[in-house]
Design goal:
Order of helices and strands: EHHEEE
Structural class: alpha+beta
Shape: globular
Helix content: 10-25%
Radius of gyration: 13 Å
Oligomer: single chain
Number of strands: 4
Number of helices: 2
Distance between the termini: 12 Å
Strand content: 25-35%
Length: 82
């Protein structure tokens, strides 16, 4: 497994993985809108988003984080692992 900072080239694979994860949990698979543009919703705001890739370069996990102002803490968002 490889953990990397988000790259747009993995966007569609990440979206597919998230929808599969929700379906596997018996949830109606819908997409949170922040995942449609990770760059604008996380990276350009000074926050972060990581992807976990398997040995075939497919997305098997993701997590975003946003800073909590005036602290050394962060909120985690969209934590999914296939």
């Amino acid at each position: 497994m490889n953990l990397i900072s988000y790259e747009d080239r993995y966007r569609d694979d990440m979206i597919f993985m998230v929808l599969q994860a929700k379906d596997a949990l018996g949830r109606v698979p819908h997409l949170n809108e922040d995942l449609l543009n990770v760059t604008a919703n996380y990276l350009e705001r000074g926050d972060g988003f990581w992807l976990a890739l398997d040995e075939t370069d497919r997305v098997i996990g993701c997590v975003g984080w946003s800073r909590i102002a005036d602290t050394s803490e962060a909120f985690l968002h969209r934590l999914y692992v296939k």
